[in-house]
């Protein structure tokens, strides 16, 4: 995920490490989206604020 991509937070199932720099967002639909380390922290914070587990 970068500035040109968006993820519906209600569809985010989990974040998994892909490499030292990237993560993969696994969606409830089974799709996966690469997420940079910068956005990984933003996604974690959004999930925390919404009361979602990581």
Automatic annotation (TrEMBL):
Keywords: Two-component regulatory system. Pfam families: LytTR. PROSITE patterns: HTH_LYTTR (PS50930). GO terms for molecular function: DNA binding. Residues 1-49 form the HTH LytTR-type domain. One of its GO terms (biological process) is phosphorelay signal transduction system. This is Response regulator receiver protein. The lineage of its organism: Bacteria, Pseudomonadati, Pseudomonadota, Gammaproteobacteria, Alteromonadales.
